[in-house]
Specification:
heterodimer, A: Pyruvate-ferredoxin Oxidoreductase, domain 3, B: 288 residues, 10 strands
């Protein structure tokens, strides 16, 4: 019996063979067919050669994680077969060129179907260029699984930005048509994994970095300065591609020190400003983050984490900078750390960060990671709602306020809330003096103990205030759970899936997901965790950094941990399995 | 011309008596006044060091940043509000040492900034270590047998790096320095003013007398033309016997902010963060 709308496609090859662009096009076709789509790119730190793949999971429901099981493998080279054949489920298919030197027995002995089609020949014959072999391969995949051809055709037309009749679009469509028909005719009847379009309204296909950048755009960010670093660069690239429409200045700098300091300068002058980097660049920004805190200049920093330490695995994922961003830079100061785990939360972090930064005049971090940066997901556009966005610039003095001012303006005025009304340089009544030294209210450097204490307490009061704005962690699942899965950031998807798998086995399980980690939501954490019999911490790092924060803030010791630091993201199956084996087997 | 007193502030400098920084402070105030600037439309951005305390000692917008980091903060401020007259202030360690990479790249960009580098050829605030502009052989607590590195040549570095205004002044001649700073402010683009400034406490070699014996004004040289790169290069190479002061080199090149599309309709900071809803909705549709 056929399995409908629950399968995973994987296309792999050398860098430069186009697995990612073709894969993205296929994901778009599936999105338009109304299916749940989650696409994951996996590449090496090189421009040519090596081994890259693009994996697309399709479902009837909204999927937010990749899976271990692959149903259709599309190798563009031999290595892909060797690397990934063991992931293909019995009944699954390997779509390959007729001439690819693979022993079909390797496949059939595992119950996997060799789908041999003269892909290169079709590409040459119908399209005049063997580069269209990717198109041919994906069209076979569509053909054997029964996705109507119109979806493939439409994406080809979109990709080549032209109507029918353009040479390159026509050539690709001819290749696609021939490959699709041959696949459907020769192998479709024997292939049990099928796709059926579901009518829905148009949906978006978006990744985490695009969602952060779009959130920043909606928040009125008018400045991004940066230095290129994977996996953060695509945030800037997206903003740069839209700079005219958005009226945003994009500045590539000589290093991350400059990038963050230019953002601080721009913010000081009155512009909503950000920078985006990964751990190595963030390490260079450390001193400047303290400057933002001391001068009370709003600052938004995105840290798209990758596997460290040092250069580490430059194109691989990890969640190992949580403790780093909580503590980086000398001295003590208030900061906010947002840890979005879905594209919706990335969008929210993208705009909320600017409100935190300006209301409290502090540095704000958005922590994302390699996996979330590039993973694409199909969503209803209403999930990124412009209606929910507010722009709150905090106590920013207008020209009218300043005109009416009778006393000397004090940039670092001591106030009950800790927030000092902010004037922007340029108004005759608001001369702004600030400094990285400890200072008096007027911005003059100070060494006396009394003012030091007052200014220190003033700054730290802002942390208590910001805590009131922090969103409580999300709790999903059973209210009276025996088992609580604790996680933060991009593990939301796989943990969510693991919870559903475990719940289906009859367990009373819930999921505590942190999307805004600092100031830490202590009360809510205690309320949830004190009622749970078994707690499992799930993180993409070695030390269980969130578990350490929980221990520090609540005294609750999470004994069970599922940790992964291979540079690869979790899958739901994997977490469920590890919870069963490592936790449930011992209680 | 604005009232010089506008820039006065009731704050006593912590500099040593006789420090060259006093002359530089007086010259900056004088230049601002002569050019009819006001405290509210000027912005002083400094690094950290003795000279970088200067923004505390005059009435103007001020941002004392990090050691070596005046330039990126100043550039960010200038690009966000290009109506402000932005001046960056560094010392020799600050500007030529730790901040050297920023110097190299600000010259390429050519934002309309004035950059004063108070060059006393020694680390003063940390109590007398040799600096990037200390002479080879300079003896200090961290170079007890004498430094074995040659000094940075700021004029040559600036010329090679593409600075559009390269000047050198002497704190012992505030009148000349005022004129030089005025020219630097009036210059459209990045203007580097290296100021020879004796450190009376730690630098016993490069004293007022040492400089006085050597400095001469390039304007007094017959036939010298500061738009001639070749002549400027020759002047930049002079040091031991004779030290030229004045405008060494000047050229016209578009400023960075003139070339940024977004800044042509006025300062970036004037734009509301609220973007038109239809623009945002249209962008969102690109994902569909």
């Amino acid at each position: 019996m056929a399995v409908v709308n629950d399968m995973t496609f994987k296309m792999g090859g050398e860098a430069g063979q186009g697995a990612d662009t073709s894969g993205h096009g296929f994901a778009k076709a599936l999105t338009r067919a109304g299916l749940g789509v989650y696409g994951l790119q996996d590449y090496m730190s090189r421009i040519r050669g090596g081994h890259n793949f693009f994996q697309i999971r399709v479902s009837d429901r909204d999927v937010q994680a990749t899976s271990d099981a692959v149903h259709v493998l599309m190798p563009l080279d031999l290595e892909t077969v060797h690397e990934h054949l063991n992931e293909v489920v019995p009944g699954g298919a390997v779509i390959m060129d007729s001439r690819l030197k693979v022993d079909d027995g390797l496949l059939t002995s595992r119950g996997v179907k060799p789908v041999r089609i003269p892909l290169t020949e079709i590409a040459q014959r119908e399209g005049g260029n063997k580069i269209m072999m990717n198109t041919a391969s994906l069209s076979v995949a569509a053909g054997i699984s029964g996705l109507p051809f119109e979806y493939i055709e439409q994406v080809i037309l979109d990709n080549f930005g032209s109507r029918k009749g353009s040479k390159i679009a026509d050539a690709n469509i001819a290749v696609a048509r021939a490959a699709y028909d041959e696949g459907a005719r020769e192998f479709g009847p024997d292939f049990d994994f099928k796709l059926e379009p579901r009518p829905t309204k148009p949906r978006m296909l978006i990744n985490g970095n695009q969602a952060i950048a779009f959130g920043a755009a909606v928040a009125g960010c008018r400045w991004i300065s940066m230095y290129p670093m994977t996996p953060a660069t695509t945030i800037t690239e997206w903003l740069a591609a839209h700079h005219r429409k958005l009226g945003i200045v994009v500045k590539e700098c000589e290093d991350e020190i400059t990038a963050v300091l230019m953002a601080i300068g721009a913010a000081h002058a009155g512009v909503r400003a950000m920078t985006a980097t990964s751990g190595g660049g963030l390490s260079l920004m450390v001193e400047a983050v303290g400057l933002s805190a001391m001068t009370e200049t709003p600052l938004v920093v995105v840290d798209a984490q990758r596997a460290g330490p040092s250069t580490g695995l430059p194109t691989r994922t990890e969640q190992s900078d949580l403790q780093f961003v909580m503590h980086l830079s000398q001295g003590e100061f208030p900061r906010v750390v947002l840890t979005p785990g879905t594209v919706e939360e990335c969008f929210q972090a993208g705009w909320r960060a600017f409100n935190f930064a300006e209301k409290y005049q502090i540095p704000v971090f958005i922590l994302t990671d390699m996996n979330q940066s590039s993973a694409i997901r199909a969503i209803d556009p209403d999930r990124l709602s412009l209606d929910e966005v507010t722009i709150d610039r905090g106590e920013l003095l207008t020209d009218v306020d300043l005109d009416a001012m009778t006393e000397e303006y004090l940039r670092h005025k001591l106030t009950p809330s800790g927030v000092s009304p902010r004037a922007l340089p340029g108004h005759p009544k608001g001369i702004v003096l600030t400094t990285s030294d400890e200072h008096y209210e007027d911005g003059q450097a100070v060494e006396e103990a009394e003012m030091r204490v007052l200014q220190m307490e003033k700054r730290m009061r802002k942390l208590d205030l910001a805590a009131q704005d922090i969103r409580a962690p999300l709790v999903e699942g059973a209210a009276d759970a025996d088992l609580t899965l604790v996680a933060w950031g991009s593990t939301y998807g796989p943990v969510h899936e693991a919870r559903l798998l475990l719940a289906a086995e009859g367990l009373k399980v819930n999921h505590l997901h942190y999307h805004e980690v600092w100031p830490f939501p202590t009360a809510r954490t205690e309320q949830i965790l004190r009622n749970s019999r078994h707690i499992v911490d799930i993180e993409n790092n070695y030390t269980g950094q969130l578990a350490l924060v929980i221990k520090m803030m609540t005294g609750i010791d999470i004994a069970h941990r599922v940790l992964k630091y291979s540079g690869r993201p979790f899958t739901g199956d994997e977490i469920a399995r590890k919870v069963r084996e490592g936790v449930l087997a011992h209680v | 011309m604005s009232d010089l007193k506008l820039f006065n502030i009731d704050e006593k400098p912590t500099w040593c008596p006789g420090c060259g920084d006093f002359g530089i402070l007086a010259a900056i105030k004088q230049a601002f006044s002569q050019l009819d600037l006001q405290p509210h439309n000027t912005m002083l951005v400094s690094g950290i060091g003795c000279g970088s305390k200067l923004p505390y000692y005059m009435k103007a917008n001020g941002f004392d940043a990090l050691h070596g980091r005046a330039l990126p903060v100043a550039t960010g401020i200038k690009l966000a509000n290009h109506e402000l007259n932005v001046m960056a202030i560094s010392g020799d360690g600050d500007g030529y040492g730790i901040g050297g990479n920023h110097l190299m790249h600000v010259m390429r960009r050519n934002p309309n900034l004035t950059h004063i580098i108070e060059n006393n050829q020694v680390y003063g605030l940390t109590k007398g270590q040799y600096s990037p502009t200390s002479d080879r052989g300079y003896i200090s607590s961290t170079s007890p047998e004498g430094s074995i590195e040659i000094m940075v040549n700021p004029m040559a570095v600036a010329l090679a790096g593409g600075a559009t205004f390269v000047g050198r002044g002497f704190a012992g001649d505030p009148k000349h320095l005022t004129q030089l700073i005025m020219k630097a402010i009036q210059h459209k683009g990045y203007a580097l003013v290296d100021v020879l400034q004796p450190c009376v406490t730690y630098n016993k070699i490069n004293t007022y007398d040492w400089y006085k014996e050597r400095v001469y004004k390039v304007d007094d040289e017959e036939g010298f033309d500061s738009i001639d790169f070749g002549q400027a290069w020759a002047k930049a190479r002079e040091w031991d016997e004779r030290i030229p002061i004045g405008v060494i080199y000047q050229e016209d090149r578009p400023t960075y902010e003139e070339q940024v599309e977004e800044l042509q309709k006025g300062p970036l900071m004037r734009w509301s963060p609220e973007r038109p809803r239809d623009v945002l909705e249209a962008i969102k549709l690109e994902f569909v």
